[in-house]
Amino acid sequence: MQRFRLSNWQCDMAKVTIPLAQAHKFDVKKIGGKALNLGTLVTNHIDVPNGFVVLSTVLSDIRTSNGLDRKIHRHLTELRDSKMKNVDYVSQNLRELVEELEISHHGEEEINAAFQELDANYVAVRSSATSEDQESHSWAGEFDTYTFINASGLMQHIKKCWASLYTPRALMYAYKHNLPFASDMAVIVQQMINSEVSGVCFTKDPGSHDSNLIVIEAIWGLGELLVHGDVTPDRYWIDKRKGIIIDIEEGSQNKKLISYKGKKLQKNIDKEEQKNQKLTGEAIMIVAKTASRIEKVMQAPQDIEWSFSDKNLYIFQTRPITGANPHSSY
């Protein structure tokens, strides 16, 4: 397999990373929708795990300098013309090409330095495509996130995020919605949070579309079981105007995902603990009030991913509600 490397001269002239806290200063084409939204939250003093962004220009410069852009364009044009006939085959070929890319020595040095500044043993490596988390189409769940990644696996998982531009689900999403195929992606690297309770929050009821209702879903442990639909979450409804909880629906959860020494382990929940509500009334209102703040900052109803760790609330993602936004991250 041919490897592609961006010349040292080109990399020396280009910035590779920026702190997540500065993301709001950059155009979405360089940092992607997810990073732009998180950077906006940080500037508004909303707790987001500390991190940095690998700019989208790192990937695009490598592709352009080696003519890979033309090859990818040809494959994708033929795929669309065939009405997605060979989507799995094309996807595999394109992902292999991207995962074989080599980041320059300068680029790796800058990324590793940013990682060291986080002072974290493990990080989450998250896609931030330039087409992602927009008001018209969210691309929710179409690109990849990797959790509990250590220093030795960081570069490869950045490339895996890039390669998720070409998963079958991402390619089919573009085709079904008559959109251009996603082509540019930044990558967010964030300190890993050991979540005790995780969930999502909608600042408009996705069922009734009532903009006065906040709906919170919560599960024990890491949020991936909620993403995959493996457990039924608690659901809480909050009246925005009155600032009160108006309904609670307790879910069923007999297992949870926890972290142990950098690995994700599934653990059974004893029957007594299963009877407990995931969030106290106080915690429900903390999530609801934070969600209301985020909605005001973003100036649109939001789909928010969150977790509690050591009694602190962290926000992992916020995006406009575009309809059927599936759970996607963690």
Walk me through the structure.
By secondary structure, the protein is of the alpha+beta class. It has 2 domains: 8-191, Dna Ligase, domain 1; 197-320, 2-Layer Sandwich (D-amino Acid Aminotransferase, Chain A, domain 1), CATH 3.30.470.20. It has 11 helices and 13 strands. It has helices spanning 8-12, 28-43, 56-65, 68-81, 87-99, 105-118, 154-163, 168-176, 224-227, 271-274, 281-298, and strands spanning 17-19, 51-54, 123-129, 145-149, 185-191, 197-202, 213-220, 234-239, 244-249, 255-260, 263-268, 302-309, 312-320. The strands form 3 sheets. Strands 9-8-7-6-12-13 form a 6-stranded antiparallel sheet. Strand 8 and strand 9 (244-249) form a beta hairpin.
**Sheet with most strands: strand arrangement:** 9-8-7-6-12-13
Report the span from N to C terminus: 32 Å
Would you state the CATH class of the largest domain? Alpha Beta
Helix content: 25-40%
**Beta-strand percentage?**
15-25%
Q: In CATH, what is the homologous superfamily of the largest domain? A: ATP-grasp fold, A domain
Radius of gyration based on Cα positions: 20 Å
Sketch the major β-sheet.
Answer: 6 strands, antiparallel
